[in-house]
Amino acid sequence: MVIYSVILFAVAALFLGFAIAIYQGNTNLIHDYHQTHVKEEDRKAYGRAFSKGLFVLAGFLTISGVIALLGETLPVVLASAGVSLAGIVTALLIAAKVQKEFNGGFF
């Protein structure tokens, strides 16, 4: 489970890096078609709101990696996978809410 944890930590660091960049205003990291209806004056707020989902995902992946370090028993594996799944679902719900608010939908 150590390799799995290292992978989770690396992916969490990657998402954290993207989240920080987007939070600081680099919305070019988000696909253009997700921003087609975002007003120019809302771009900064859009980036900050969108990055919250990535921050949440990075946090959940980190927690999942820590849990995975506790062993290879079935409850630990299920807990780690459950936390990862919860993070992905939460991040997608945040992204959907942000897209609906700022873009009128996903596309």
Would you kindly provide a written description of the structure presented here, covering whatever features stand out?
The protein has 107 residues and is mainly α. The protein is built from three helices and no strands. Helix 2 packs antiparallel against helix 3. The radius of gyration is 16 Å and the shape is elongated. The termini are far apart. The mean pLDDT is 92.
| Helix count from the secondary structure assignment | 3
Mean pLDDT: 92
Q: In percent, how helical is the residue content?
A: over 70%
How many beta-strand segments? 0
Major sheet description: none
Radius of gyration: 16 Å
Written as H for each helix and E for each strand, in order along the chain, the element string is HHH
User: What is the general shape?
Assistant: elongated
Beta strand % = under 5%
**What oligomeric state best describes the polypeptide chains here?**
single chain
Which class do the helix and strand fractions yield?
Answer: mainly alpha
Q: Name the poorly predicted regions.
A: none
- Span from first to last CA? 38 Å
Give a short overview.
With 107 residues, this protein is an all-alpha fold. The protein has helices spanning 2-23, 43-68, 74-103. The radius of gyration is 16 Å and the shape is elongated.
Fill in the keyword field for this structure.
107 residues, 0% strand, single chain, mainly alpha
Produce the secondary structure layout.
Elements: H1 2-23, H2 43-68, H3 74-103
